[in-house]
Specification:
By secondary structure, this protein is α/β, with parallel strands linked by helices. 35% of the residues lie in helices and 20% in strands. The protein has 14 helices and 21 strands. The chain has a 7-stranded mixed beta sheet with strand order 13-14-15-12-11-17-18, with helices on both faces.
Length: 497
């Protein structure tokens, strides 16, 4: 394997915890390894937070949220300006962040028009700027009530927010939590995934450079028990979590067992991708391909259940296989780095995905292409397509979180709606059709938080995102995404002399 420099001086990577505007080491002295999934080599050792660091971070966030503090007395326009300054700094250092995230997460750089960390860092900047624009526009209502009374509402920050983010889109999900929380005037203790802590820690430098007051943003690195400590803490007012449905259940449990925190969850999915018989086949294959294989299949909303109408099924399967086999696979810093697909995030995920592939074969699905490891080093898996899949098979039921497409056949629109909705998940769905009325009719019948028509993975900061059923509660992004970070206060007084 030929490699070239990642352009990052690894001994200078920030690995400390960020508490009260200071970078600190863990009191316990514990560290954990940060691994490059493309090479399986250690990038650096990162400080591991524990009980003392959680306590210190929550105390700092509470102090920053106290009445009369610089943050609480700051005008919305000043919060706006701080967020815009932060966004400008992320944009200034975009080249470094693109490379750091590719090194930490393994995904391609995306320098040649394909998906990669270039897209993610650019989206992060857009998210921060979008919510900066809302900071001075958080309004209440004047409400006509019976009698001679003046009644109005105020939108106020929830308080200290614990934010727990996963590893699949590290900086974009960091921005999706942090920007609206700060826009609304909250303070934050954010935990990164132990698999991808590095870009958030670098962003902490930019937060301090932007001028946010001490204690407003605190960033901890560590494992699941750190998230539990944050979620159970009696002085945390809200928890926002993105991750698996299994952990989401625990988050709700911990919040209930402590102080009944406000909870918002963006959880797993098993999204249907419906290809109708009037669809443009070439376009549908491209959309379905991106729906499953983008980011190595490591997307909560991946359209991994591809329902194709029977009259075009064989033609679709042949074209989908050809497109999957043309995918180039490699590390971001291997050769010229111009690859479509990188590795899975770590050995655990690699084995999990390979286990699902083996289970698909054992349960009788036909392996049309892929299904094997790519190369001998790094956690690379070939894009995999199964045909002759039935709804009862494990690969059609469970979230695989890898580059595995299951293609299922259907006859009627009524049938595909019933089968698509027959899932515990409801995060997203896709439809390919040239008939606008038909596509919209199906979209309105699907029980999913987002429905993409003739596109997929089209994320915009202004568009709300979140799930139905076991895919979570609450919305992120868009104007609707402000609600989870705000409380509504009603004020009422008589106006008669």
């Amino acid at each position: 394997m030929v490699t070239f420099s990642c352009g990052i001086d690894t001994p200078k990577i920030e690995t400390r915890l960020f508490i009260n505007n200071e970078f600190v080491n863990a009191k316990s002295g514990k560290t954990f390894e940060c691994i490059d999934p493309a090479t399986e080599e250690i990038i650096c050792l990162v400080q591991e937070a524990g009980q003392e660091e959680v306590t210190a971070a929550v105390q700092a966030a509470n102090a920053a949220f106290q009445s009369g503090s610089p943050w609480r007395t700051m005008d919305g326009s000043a919060r706006r300006d701080l967020l815009l300054r932060f966004a400008n700094l992320v944009e200034r250092d975009q080249d470094y962040l693109v490379r750091l995230e590719a090194l930490d997460n393994g995904k391609p750089l995306g320098l040649h028009g394909q998906y990669g960390t270039t897209v993610d860092i650019g989206l992060s900047v857009k998210i921060i700027r979008y919510f900066a624009g809302w900071a001075d526009k958080l309004t209440g209502k004047t409400i006509p009530v019976d009698g001679e009374f003046f009644c109005y509402t105020r939108r106020e920050p929830v308080g200290v927010c614990a934010c727990i983010i996963p590893w699949n889109f590290p900086l974009a999900l960091f921005a999706s939590k942090l920007a609206p929380a700060l826009c609304c005037g909250n303070t934050v203790v954010l935990k990164t995934s132990e698999k991808t802590p590095l870009t958030a820690l670098y962003a902490a430098k930019l937060i301090r450079e932007a001028g946010f007051p001490a204690g407003v943003v605190n960033i901890l690195s560590g494992f699941g028990h750190v998230g539990e400590l944050m979620t159970r803490h009696p002085n945390v007012d809200k928890v926002a979590f993105t991750g698996s449905t299994a952990v989401g259940r625990k988050i709700q449990q911990y919040a209930a067992e402590s102080n009944l925190k406000n909870v918002s969850l963006e959880l797993g999915g098993k999204s249907p991708m419906i290809v109708l018989d009037d669809a443009d086949i070439e376009e549908a294959v491209s959309i379905a391909h991106a729906a499953v294989f983008l980011n190595q299949g490591q997307c909560c909303c991946a359209g991994s259940r591809v329902y194709v109408q029977e009259s075009i099924y064989d033609k679709f399967v042949a074209a989908a296989g050809t497109k999957a086999e043309a995918v180039t696979i490699g590390g971001a810093f291997e050769a010229d780095g111009n690859f479509d697909q990188g590795p899975q995030i770590d050995e655990i995920q690699f084995k999990r995905v390979m286990g699902y592939i083996n289970q698909g074969k054992q349960e009788g699905a036909t392996l049309a292409t892929g299904g094997k490891r790519h190369g001998t080093k790094g956690y690379f898996i070939q894009p995999t397509i199964f045909t002759d899949v039935t709804d009862s098979m494990t690969i059609a039921q469970e979230e695989i979180f890898g580059p595995v497409m299951s293609i299922l056949k259907f006859k009627t629109d009524e049938e595909v709606i019933q089968r698509s909705n027959d899932s515990k998940y409801g995060l997203a769905a896709g439809i390919c059709s040239t008939n606008v009325a038909r596509a919209l009719s199906l979209a309105h019948q699907l029980r999913d938080g987002t429905v993409w028509i003739n596109t997929f993975h089209n994320f915009d900061p202004a568009a709300p995102y979140g799930g139905f059923k076991e895919s979570g509660c609450g919305r992120e992004k868009g104007e609707d995404g402000l609600d989870i970070w705000l409380e509504t206060k009603c004020v009422l007084m008589p106006i008669k002399n």
